[in-house]
Amino acid sequence: MTLDDLPALARGCAILGTGGGGHVETGVLKAAKAIAEFGEVPVVPLADVPPDGLILPLSGIGAPTVGHEMLMSGEEPVLIRDEVERLFGRPVAAVMSSEIGGSNGVSPVAWAARLGLPLVDADGMGRAFPEVQMVAMYVAGRPVNVVVLADVQGNLTTIRPVDGLWAERIARAVCVACGASALMADYVLTGEEARGSVIEGTVSAALAIGAAVLNSAEPLNALREALDATVLINGKVIDVERRTGGGFVRGSLIIEGTGDDRGRLLRVEIQNENLIALEDGRLRASVPDLITVVDAQTADAISTESLRYGQRVAVLSWPCDPIWRTERGLATAGPRVFGYDIDYTPVEELTHVRP
Amino acid sequence: MTLDDLPALARGCAILGTGGGGHVETGVLKAAKAIAEFGEVPVVPLADVPPDGLILPLSGIGAPTVGHEMLMSGEEPVLIRDEVERLFGRPVAAVMSSEIGGSNGVSPVAWAARLGLPLVDADGMGRAFPEVQMVAMYVAGRPVNVVVLADVQGNLTTIRPVDGLWAERIARAVCVACGASALMADYVLTGEEARGSVIEGTVSAALAIGAAVLNSAEPLNALREALDATVLINGKVIDVERRTGGGFVRGSLIIEGTGDDRGRLLRVEIQNENLIALEDGRLRASVPDLITVVDAQTADAISTESLRYGQRVAVLSWPCDPIWRTERGLATAGPRVFGYDIDYTPVEELTHVRP
Question: How close is the nearest chain A Cα to the Cα of B176, in Å?
Answer without folding.
Answer: 8
